[in-house]
Design goal:
The complex is a heterodimer of chains A (about 110) and B (about 110). Chain A is mainly β and about 110 residues long. Chain A has strands spanning about 5, 10-15, 20-25, 35-40, 45-50, 55-60, 60-65, 70-75, 85-95, 100-105, 110-114. Chain A is built from no helices and eleven strands. In chain A, strands 2, 4, 5, 9, 10 and 11 form a six-stranded mixed β-sheet that branches. In chain A, a hairpin with a 4-residue loop joins strand 7 (about 60-65) and strand 8 (about 70-75). Chain A is globular and about 40 Å long. Chain A starts with a strand and ends with a strand. In chain B, strands 2, 4, 5, 8, 9 and 10 form a six-stranded mixed β-sheet that branches. Chain B has a four-stranded antiparallel β-sheet with strand order 1-3-7-6, with no helix packed on it. Chain B is globular, with a radius of gyration of 13 Å. The termini of chain B are far apart. The chains are: A mainly beta (about 110), B mainly beta (about 110). The interface between A and B is medium-sized, with 25 and 26 residues.
């Protein structure tokens, strides 16, 4: 019941194209949905996050779409660039005992080719 | 300011030996997390510290794993009698605490057990 399912496992997109990564969750108690970006040899870094009271959040070329009824959310990267090549993790968290316990998806390795 | 730092960056050890991994969180962050990232996998929660509260150890995979946090700052993850399946990247993250959700990750320690 704590799973977050992420797809696809890997993704190749042409420069300028749209990258789309999807996630689904089961636990309706989740109240915070962040996306993390990880470059090789580095720790993950928060990219963008959304709460379930909104259906979309946009920051620059990155947009989260959130469908509460379907328990799904997705990351869209517009005008994808080679510098976006990284592994992306979706996550979901909920307050538990006074802190946020985060469950991560298994990651999507994105490669943007010139 | 300085981010989360971890040491060593790489550790190679023989099966059966004990290892200690260190994490220095961002100054002022009261929450500290340890995660394990196996090759091609997502992030597996290990343990959480929040201020002076008892840690949440629910993610530790066996009693060979332990962690402590001294003075509410530096944390050490200890793995006793290492096994080959312990080989992974161990990531530490810190956050401002209960009401602040963003976790800031360190670069990780890559542990290889031969």
């Amino acid at each position: 019941q704590q799973q977050v399912k992420q797809s696809p496992q890997s993704l190749i997109v042409q420069k300028g194209g749209i990258s789309i990564i999807n996630c689904a969750y089961e636990n309706t108690a989740f109240d915070y949905f962040p996306w993390y970006q990880q470059f090789p040899g580095k720790g993950p870094a928060l990219l963008i996050a959304i709460r379930p009271d909104v259906s979309e959040k946009k920051e620059g070329r990155f947009t989260i779409s959130f469908n509460k009824s379907a328990k799904q959310f997705s990351l869209h990267i517009m005008d994808s660039q080679p510098g976006d090549s990284a592994t992306y993790f979706c996550a979901a968290s909920r307050g538990s005992g006074g802190y946020q316990k985060v469950t991560f998806g298994t990651g999507t390795k994105l490669q943007v080719i010139p | 300011g300085a981010g989360v730092s971890q040491s060593p960056s790489n550790k190679v050890t023989e099966k059966g030996k004990d290892v200690e991994l260190r994490c220095d969180p961002i100054s002022g962050h009261t929450a500290l997390y340890w995660y394990r990232q196996s090759l091609g996998q997502g992030l597996e929660f290990l343990i959480y510290f929040q201020g002076n509260s008892a840690p949440d150890k629910s993610g530790l995979p066996s009693d060979r794993f332990s962690a402590e946090r001294t003075g509410g700052s530096v944390s050490t993850l200890t793995i006793q009698r290492t096994q080959q399946e312990d080989s992974a990247v161990y990531l530490c993250a810190s956050s401002l605490g209960q009401a602040r959700y963003e976790q800031y990750f360190g670069p990780g320690t890559r542990l290889t057990v031969t």
